[in-house]
Every structure is written in structure tokens, then in C-alpha cells.
């Protein structure tokens, strides 16, 4: 089997089997995150607000991105044959993905502020600030993403960005997706570690040595880990985007094998790794945080008890109704 055929087969296998698994597990994880942090005793924390927002953006963006891609394998490709759907899908994915990235930056900034020794900086780590920040962020990216509703197009039965707009878009994505988020997260990560060192803290909770409880420690762990995960999953994306747009005018001189290799690399960098990034927050938190595992276990047990109680109530009502019906039948007879 040739290199081209192998790469095509691998990409199809990933799209057919890996992406649905990523989407399913991601949806489950994001829904659990939303449910856990929407509880009354959890949603008053600023980090809970950021994590709920991150999960919502992941949920919406991932489904808009993956479902049409997988569906097009064996069915009519709606996105590549409808300019309206093409632009709406591009707008939704871009808005959600950018909101996801910059909410993650806000989450890291919140942890830096909370661990600061300066009172006026710590005051920024509040639920009110978190709600306003997320609201403003959504509004900003809903406006800044409007250009996709106007300029995204379909060429050679493929929905995408082309021409001069595509080249400009490539540099814009490299800056807004790669440069700014990575530099911001790195900066806040280093500042957070410095604050922890100044407070003589360790990432692992040590009773009596700090003013942070287990929940705060788990949020700090998650922020630092998410910075690493984001860099791993995103580091290729800006470079691949710039290269694709910069060499788009040279496609006629490229061999078929070179085009297929570039297409496969684009798929890995701009689809698979990004979708992994959007759908791993819950599982990263579950792995690194004992406190979150306990909250998740408590949530599941509470859910089971509610279902069990409702089932018992339903069975009791059924028995009462059956008994009443029999008594009425006896009286009538």
C-alpha cells in the first residue's frame, strides 16, 4: 500500500472511530463538569464559573465540529454543499474555540490572583468578576467572529477560508490561537508558581501550612496542568495554519504525495489534537485531583439515591393505585 493510501486510510479510521469516541467521552465529561459545579455549594466559587463556561464552549464547539465531519463519511456532505451551513458552522466553531481558550486564560489568571499576597489582586478572584469576565468574553468573540459569516466560502467542494482572506486569517489565527494564549498562560503559570513559592506552598495539600483548602489546591493543580495540555495540543496549530495559507498559491507545483502528507498533518494539528484539548478538562481534573474525585463520587451517589427514591415512590404509588382499583372493582361487583 502506498504512502498516500495509508495516510488516507489512517485519517478515515481516526475520523470514523476515534473522533466519535472523543466526542462521546467529551460530552459525558463536560456534562458532568457542568452538573457538578452547578450545584448550590459549588457554583459560588469563581473557578466553578470558569469551568462551567469552558465545558459549555467545549460541548457546543465539539459537536458542531465533529458531528458533520463524521456524518459526511457515509452520507451527503451538508457543510460542503451549503454555503449558509458552512458559514454558520465555521462561526460557531470559531466563537466557541476562542471563548474556550480565553476563558482558560481567565481561569489561570484567577488562580494567580487568588494566590497573590497582595489584597487588591486577590480581590479579583471573585464570582462577580468571573461572571462579568465570561459575559464580556462571549460578547467580544461573538462580534470578532462575524467575519466568518461573510467571507468563509466553498471551493472544490470544501468549506474553508481561501484567497487573500485565507492568508490574513492564517496569521490572525496564529496570533490569537497560538501566540497570545500560550504567552498568557505561560506568564500566569510562572506567576502562580512564584506566588506559591512565596507562600511556602506545595502543589500537594499540606494541612496547617497554608490558607488554601483542598478545593483551591485542586484548582491550582488543574490550572497548571491545563497550561501544559493546551501547549501540547495547540503548539502545531499556528505553524500549520500559516504554512498552509502561505503555500496555498503553490498547490499546482506540489506532488500528490506532498499534498496528502500536508493534508494529514493539517488533520492532526487542526482537528484531532484540538478536539482532544476541548474534551479532556474533566478527565484531567479527575486524574490529578483527589478532591474532585471525591466530589464526583458524591455527585454520583446523590444521583443514584435520587433515582432509587423516585423508583420506590413510583412503585409505592403503583401499589396504592392498584389497590384502589381492586377495591373499586369489588364494590362495583
From TrEMBL:
GO CC terms of this entry: plasma membrane
Annotated GO MF terms: G protein-coupled receptor activity
Keywords, comma-separated and alphabetical: G-protein coupled receptor, Membrane, Receptor, Transducer, Transmembrane, Transmembrane helix
Organism: Adineta ricciae (Rotifer)
Transmembrane domains' residue ranges: 17-37, 49-71, 91-113, 134-151, 171-192, 219-244, 264-288
Cellular localisation: Membrane
Keyword hit for Transmembrane: yes
Membrane-protein topology: Multi-pass membrane protein
The keyword Membrane belongs to this UniProt entry's keyword annotation: yes
Protein name: G-protein coupled receptors family 1 profile domain-containing protein
Major location category of this protein: membrane
Amino acid at each position: 500500500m502506498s504512502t498516500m493510501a495509508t495516510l488516507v486510510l489512517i485519517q478515515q479510521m481516526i475520523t470514523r472511530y476515534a473522533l466519535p469516541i472523543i466526542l462521546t467521552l467529551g460530552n459525558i465529561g463536560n456534562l458532568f463538569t457542568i452538573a457538578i459545579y452547578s450545584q448550590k455549594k459549588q457554583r459560588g466559587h469563581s473557578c466553578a464559573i470558569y469551568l462551567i463556561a469552558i465545558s459549555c464552549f467545549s460541548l457546543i464547539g465539539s459537536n458542531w465540529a465533529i458531528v458533520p465531519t463524521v456524518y459526511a463519511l457515509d452520507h451527503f456532505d451538508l457543510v460542503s454543499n451549503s454555503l449558509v451551513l458552512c458559514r454558520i458552522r465555521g462561526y460557531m466553531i470559531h466563537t466557541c474555540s476562542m471563548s474556550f481558550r480565553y476563558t482558560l486564560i481567565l481561569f489561570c489568571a484567577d488562580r494567580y490572583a487568588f494566590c497573590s499576597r497582595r489584597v487588591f489582586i486577590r480581590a479579583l478572584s471573585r464570582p462577580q468578576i468571573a461572571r462579568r469576565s465570561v459575559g464580556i468574553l462571549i460578547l467580544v468573540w461573538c462580534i470578532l467572529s462575524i467575519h466568518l459569516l461573510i467571507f468563509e466560502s466553498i471551493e472544490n467542494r470544501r468549506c474553508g477560508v481561501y484567497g487573500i482572506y485565507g492568508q490574513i486569517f492564517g496569521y490572525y489565527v496564529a496570533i490569537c490561537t497560538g501566540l497570545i494564549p500560550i504567552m498568557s498562560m505561560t506568564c500566569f503559570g510562572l506567576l502562580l508558581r512564584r506566588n506559591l513559592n512565596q507562600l511556602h506552598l506545595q502543589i500537594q495539600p499540606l494541612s496547617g501550612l497554608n490558607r488554601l483548602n483542598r478545593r483551591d489546591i485542586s484548582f491550582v493543580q488543574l490550572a497548571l496542568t491545563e497550561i501544559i495540555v493546551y501547549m501540547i495540543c495547540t503548539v502545531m496549530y499556528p505553524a500549520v495554519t500559516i504554512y498552509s495559507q502561505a503555500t496555498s498559491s503553490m498547490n499546482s507545483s506540489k506532488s500528490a504525495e506532498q499534498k496528502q502528507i500536508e493534508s494529514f498533518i493539517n488533520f492532526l494539528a487542526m482537528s484531532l489534537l484540538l478536539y482532544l484539548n476541548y474534551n479532556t478538562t474533566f478527565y484531567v481534573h479527575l486524574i490529578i485531583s483527589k478532591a474532585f474525585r471525591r466530589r464526583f463520587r458524591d455527585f454520583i451517589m446523590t444521583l443514584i439515591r435520587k433515582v432509587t427514591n423516585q423508583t420506590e415512590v413510583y412503585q409505592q404509588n403503583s401499589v396504592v393505585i392498584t389497590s384502589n382499583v381492586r377495591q373499586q372493582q369489588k364494590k362495583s361487583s
